[in-house]
Amino acid sequence: MDILTVLQQVDHRLFHRLFQQGERGMIRPLAKALSRSGDGYLHMLIPALLWLLPAQHIGEFCALLLVALTIERSLYWILKNSLKRRRPQALMPNFRSLITASDQFSFPSGHSSGAFLLATALGVVYGGPLVAMFLWASLVALSRVVLGVHFPGDTVAGAVMGTSITLLTASLLGIS
């Protein structure tokens, strides 16, 4: 058995376990709210709020966010439409996700990538409560699995992609 087959089997088993955990209490409504918080609105709202405050380093933050998002969204689109990994609902008979995904393919998770990009950008420019920012990004990623629109590997890839692109962009822009 090759490594990709093993990874896919592990990914599917972990997906089933996490999805089933969502059946407990208020987990699914919370997952829906967390997923929505990763829809991209915060990428516009946070810079606007920082501009109104007016916060220090707003120019650096906006430049980092704009360049990193441009790179990330381009890479995300290329990977998603070249690799064409089908979503759980498309791969598993008799399975229905709890929400409708915005596009057809699942790898990498754009919500995860965007959430980790934002958390990393805030961390690079402002420091502050890094644990809280990365906890939020991790919960956005987990929510996508609990809602049935991504496999765990999709969200891990998104997290790595968003974080890496932001750190590379910050380095290239001389922001630390």
Number of strands: 0
Strand content: under 5%
> Number of helix segments?
8
H and E order: HHHHHHHH
Low-confidence stretches: none
Instruction: State mean pLDDT (0 to 100 scale).
Output: 89
Structural class: mainly alpha
Give the biggest beta sheet. none
Q: What's the Cα radius of gyration? A: 17 Å
Q: Per the principal axes of the C-alpha atoms, what is the gross shape?
A: globular
Helical content (DSSP H or I, runs of 4+) = over 70%
Distance between the termini: 44 Å
Description:
By secondary structure, this protein is mostly helical. The protein has helices at 3-21, 27-37, 42-52, 58-83, 88-91, 110-126, 130-146, 152-173. It is globular. It starts with a helix and ends with a helix.
Keywords:
single chain; 176 residues; mainly alpha; 8 helices; 72% helix; globular
Q: Topology of this structure?
A:
Elements: H1 3-21, H2 27-37, H3 42-52, H4 58-83, H5 88-91, H6 110-126, H7 130-146, H8 152-173
Summary?
The chain has helices at 3-21, 27-37, 42-52, 58-83, 88-91, 110-126, 130-146, 152-173.
